[in-house]
Design goal:
Blueprint: E1 8-12, H1 17-28, E2 32-37, H2 40-52, E3 57-61, H3 67-81, E4 86-89, E5 95-96, H4 104-131, E6 136-141, H5 154-173, E7 180-187, E8 190-191, H6 194-197, E9 199-200, E10 204-206, E11 213-214, H7 215-227, E12 232-235, H8 237-248, H9 250-265, E13 266-270, H10 291-304
Parallel strand pairs: 1-2, 1-4, 2-3, 4-6, 5-9, 6-7, 7-12, 8-11
Antiparallel strand pairs: 10-13
Helix pairs in contact: 1-7, 3-4, 4-5, 8-9
Length: 305
């Protein structure tokens, strides 16, 4: 789809981070956007932002793990706008902790959102694409953690590996349907509030790693996939460097990340275990998590010592 003017785009996880940035980016391109999240209040804020840009939106507060609710949302969107041209699965939750110490119910809840939410969204999208003449673009936001693992985020990593594999399998099944496109987005660390909202059983306060990229950069990759579909798009120079390192020396890179990853990922300060936003939308509903500023200030302090 070369021109998004008038296109209908569903964006899940639209209340904050990459999803929110993508929704605003699509509106700027003239698309009509269906905003989906668990938080009705946050969706109202995003809809107001989109309206300020002259955009048409529809909000739908839904847990993507609920397949019946997802189907209702699809039907409602089509009743309002007539079709769905692009579907972006971007809703995600995160938790930190040692694999052996995280309760299985927390694993299941993360997978409900990060994997089954994508399964439900992908099936709904493809159902609609079939109904409108085998045409549309499905974009699933995975992560470079769907290519290369990191310790203390084991099930998040598993979900992102699964999303990448799921998307590739769907793409293979649709080889004979050239007007349905299926794309993966693989960002490196992105400056969003996901780290503040994450469940944390590790015992130390979490933060982004560095370098960390603006959410708008990932949003631009999503919009690029909608206008010029590609099978996989990596976001950030670190993503490309990690991919190269993984191909050349995977064992060495795995050991290096095992050492360096936790040093970058966690603050020295202790933090009591908590479940973050695993079961509810929570606060911190904005695009940026403030991590680019955080790391810039730390670097400047180090240089001044």
């Amino acid at each position: 789809m070369a021109d998004l003017l008038g296109a209908v785009v569903v964006v899940t996880g639209a209340s904050s981070g990459i999803g929110r940035a993508a929704a605003l980016g699509f509106v700027r391109k003239g698309a009509r956007v269906v905003l989906v999240s668990r938080s009705a209040d946050a969706l109202g804020e995003v809809a107001n932002e989109c309206g300020g840009l002259g955009g048409q939106t529809l909000t739908f507060a839904v847990d993507m793990a609920d397949e019946t609710a997802v189907e209702r949302m699809r039907s409602f969107a089509v009743a309002r706008f007539g079709r769905i041209d692009v579907w972006v699965n971007c809703a995600a939750v995160l938790h930190f902790g040692r694999f052996e110490e995280i309760p299985p119910r927390m694993f299941r809840r993360l997978m409900d959102t990060n994997l089954f939410g994508y399964i439900n969204g992908s099936q709904a999208a493809l159902r609609q694409f079939r109904l409108q003449g085998n045409s549309g673009t499905l974009i699933n936001v995975s992560s470079m953690l769907g290519v290369i693992p990191e310790p203390f985020v084991s099930v998040y990593v598993a979900s992102k590996f699964a999303i990448r594999g799921l998307t590739a399998s769907i793409r293979q099944e649709l080889r004979a349907t050239p007007h349905i496109h299926v794309c993966s987005i693989l960002p490196a660390a992105i400056d969003t509030p996901i780290y503040q909202k994450a469940a944390n059983m590790y015992g130390r306060k979490a933060r982004s790693i560095m370098p960390v990229y603006r959410a708008e950069r990932a949003a631009s990759a999503i919009i690029g996939a909608a206008t010029n579909p590609r099978r996989e798009i990596r976001v950030g120079g670190l993503a490309l460097a990690l991919e190269l390192g993984w191909r050349i020396a995977p064992s060495l890179l795995e050991r290096l990340i095992a050492i360096v990853g936790p040093r970058l990922q966690f603050e020295p300060e202790q933090e009591q275990p908590h479940e973050g936003n695993l079961s509810a939308g929570g606060s911190q509903q904005r695009i940026s998590g403030g991590w680019r500023r955080y790391w810039a200030q730390r670097v400047m302090r180090r240089m001044g010592e």
